[in-house]
Amino acid sequence: MGAAIARPEGQTGDGVPDRFYLFGSTGADLAEVSENLARTLAAALEEHESSYMGGVYFLLRSDHFDKATVEENWTDEEGYQSEPDFPEYPILVYLTNPDQSVLTSLGGLPDLTRLRLDEVG
Q1: CATH of the domain at 103
Q2: pTM for the full model?
Q3: Residue 38: which domain range?
C-alpha cells in the first residue's frame, strides 16, 4: 500500500473500499498493549487524552496503514460500553486500511482477536 494519503473517510480515489478493522485484546494494561503493537508493527506511538474516547488512548503511525488507535472498551456515565458487542475485550484496536503485512503481523499476537471488518466505498 505504501505511504498513507490524506483523503476523506470512505473515499480512496482508486475504487478500492476503505477497510476498517476492529481487534480486541485481553491484555490488562492499555500502555503495555499499545507498546507491544507499536513494536510488532514498527510504528510510532503517541499517547493522547480525550473524554470523547474514554480518556487516555494511543495513536500509532506508520506508512503501512492509514490510522490505528488503541483504546479502552470504556463505559460512559449512562452505562453504555464503547463496543457493547464485545464486553470481554477490555482493550480495542481500531485499524484503517492496513497492508497485508500488518494483518499477518497482528495474526501472530496471541492476545489479539479480529472482531469486525467494515468496508466502505
Answers
A1: 3.30.160.110
A2: 0.84
A3: 18-120
